[in-house]
């Protein structure tokens, strides 16, 4: 065993997921589009809602970042914030490359990294505690890449980070919450899509 | 069967704003013309499920996207199609290259010919099969019919090789 291999990995600092999401909620502008899916969707629905919130439930797992890319390209004068889970991100890693290639300056992808498929019973995601999400984003071509595990630091930084020219990638180390139900759809998806489009036009 | 310039001009006339695509050896040849003209905008993605999801975002955002993929990618993209077209009710339109339809020399017995059309039927996508150049006008006509009806649609474009 080499000396390098013997160095213990420091324990990861993790923040409560709900508080991390609440910081996004506090920092977003009413004109921003916010897409949430999986656990972030469940927790987002506990907060006051805005017409440009798109709760992606039901979803095609992994679809939130590419959906955000499409919205960011269609609405270049609005900021689009995607709140994704790590399991969902792993399901569609190529989307990071597609986003970096399209270079939408108004897109922010935030991945809540808890290492588990929380909504299915907290099974570990592949590569839990191994995958380096900021490094993946940099390798895909993102230039604005950020990582936080401290709630205080995230709360202090979130407004500045989401205001940066993007595309921006943020990895947040959050505590897994065991035994909670998955997100429930807030209503028929077709009707919500129609209302969302109407809100964009209005 | 059709040049990139001809397709590009048609898409512009139809008001398509973005072409979201993963190429194959037939439809991929259109990319240069699309980029040269600049309208519609070309959006390259890494897999076909993603193409439908990006198109869904574009449509929700008020743009008029077109998905341009091969039929193998249609088979890959099922959950994205289900969510975009049937959960959220977005009437997306696609041009889908039909691998091996005109020539199976490269891939004899290509099972794309078995599964592609039943898959489109299963996803309730109203499609037209285009097998010869004289059907060019069918592309625009079907696009407009689906757009006016507010329903998803596709052109299944016969291809000659893998």
Overview of the structural elements:
- The complex is a heterodimer of chains A (202) and B (162).
- Chain A is an alpha/beta fold and 202 residues long.
- Chain A has a single domain (12-115, 127-201), classed as Thiamin diphosphate (ThDP)-binding fold, Pyr/PP domains (Rossmann fold).
- Chain A has nine helices and nine strands.
- In chain A, strands 1, 2, 3, 4, 5, 8 and 9 form a seven-stranded parallel β-sheet that branches.
- In chain A, helix 2 packs parallel to helix 8 (151-162).
- The termini of chain A are far apart.
- Chain B has 162 residues and is of the alpha/beta class.
- Helix content of chain B is 44%, strand content 19%.
- Chain B has seven helices and six strands.
- Chain B has a six-stranded parallel β-sheet, sandwiched between helices.
- In chain B, helix 2 (31-37) links the parallel strand 1 and strand 2 (41-44).
- In chain B, helix 3 runs parallel beside helix 5 (78-87).
- The longest helix of chain B is centred in the C-terminal third of the chain and has 14 residues, at 136-149.
């Amino acid at each position: 065993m080499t000396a390098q291999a013997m160095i213990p990995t420091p324990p990861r600092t993790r923040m409560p997921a709900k508080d991390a999401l609440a910081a996004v909620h506090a920092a977003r502008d009413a004109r921003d589009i916010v897409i949430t899916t999986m656990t972030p969707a469940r927790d987002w629905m506990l907060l006051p809602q805005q017409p440009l919130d798109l709760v992606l439930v039901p979803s095609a797992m992994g679809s939130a970042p590419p959906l955000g890319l499409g919205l960011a390209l269609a609405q270049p004068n609005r900021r689009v914030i995607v709140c994704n889970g790590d399991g969902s991100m792993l399901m569609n890693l190529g989307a990071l490359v597609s986003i970096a290639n399209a270079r939408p300056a108004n897109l922010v992808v935030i991945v809540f990294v808890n290492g588990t498929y929380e909504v299915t019973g907290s099974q570990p995601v592949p590569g839990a505690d191994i995958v380096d999400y900021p490094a993946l984003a940099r390798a895909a071509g993102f230039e604005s890449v950020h990582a936080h595990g401290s709630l205080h630091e995230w709360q202090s930084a979130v407004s500045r980070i989401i205001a940066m020219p993007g595309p921006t990638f943020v990895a947040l180390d959050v505590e897994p919450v065991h035994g909670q139900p998955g997100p429930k759809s807030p209503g028929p998806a077709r009707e919500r899509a129609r209302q969302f489009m109407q809100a964009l036009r209005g | 069967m059709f040049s990139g310039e001809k397709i590009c001009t048609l898409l512009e006339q139809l008001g398509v704003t973005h072409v979201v695509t993963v190429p194959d050896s037939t439809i991929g040849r259109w990319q240069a013309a699309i980029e040269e003209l600049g309208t519609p905008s070309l959006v390259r993605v890494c897999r076909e499920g993603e193409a439908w999801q990006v198109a869904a975002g574009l449509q929700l955002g008020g743009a008029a996207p077109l998905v341009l993929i091969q039929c193998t990618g249609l088979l890959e993209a099922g959950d994205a199609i289900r969510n975009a077209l049937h959960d959220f009710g977005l009437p997306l339109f696609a041009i889908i290259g039909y691998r091996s339809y005109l020539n199976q020399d490269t891939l004899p017995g290509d099972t794309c010919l078995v599964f592609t059309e039943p898959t489109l039927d299963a996803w309730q996508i109203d499609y037209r099969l285009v097998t010869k150049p004289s059907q060019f006008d069918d592309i625009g006509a079907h696009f407009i019919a689906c757009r006016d009806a507010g329903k998803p649609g596709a052109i299944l474009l016969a291809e000659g090789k893998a």
